[in-house]
Write the structure tokens for this entry.
Amino acid sequence: MATVTREHPKLDRLDKRILGIMQSNGRITNLELAEQVGLSPTPCARRVKRLEDSGLIERHVTLLNQTRLGLNITAMISISMDRHTPERFENFERQVRKFPEVVECSIVTGQAADYLLKAVLPDITYYEEFLLGRLTRIDGVTGVHSSFVLRKVIDRTELPLDRL
């Protein structure tokens, strides 16, 4: 069986600094970024473009305030499947992608569940409708265990760059 290797682009000190600044402020202008990293604007823009082209920068997003939008519940939902077949998993993943409430979905190991979902919802009544009306109706779902976030202790989007 062949092994898949993924090359990681080489990052120098300036690349790491650019990435760190951009993670904390995605709206920073190229001029401001260049000043903060000690480059002129053109070379800075070239580096950012290279980081985007390499796939290290996937996209630029705006983070919204969940509570101010009235999305007061974050549910961590463990899903167990009846069969571990590619078709069953593909169907589940295709269906769950249609649910805008699901902001993360991962296949996991080390527990009874096959998937771990993070869903953001307005209230418990909506959650019940989502769970019983859509999530448990996906073919193959045999078990659901939900936990609710009481308070976020750490809520960051920045990835650690100091050990790269």
Summary: The beta strands are 73-81, 102-107, 115-121, 141-148. Residues 82 and 140 are 5 Å apart (CA to CA). The domain at 73-148 is CATH 3.30.70.920 (Alpha-Beta Plaits). The radius of gyration is 20 Å.
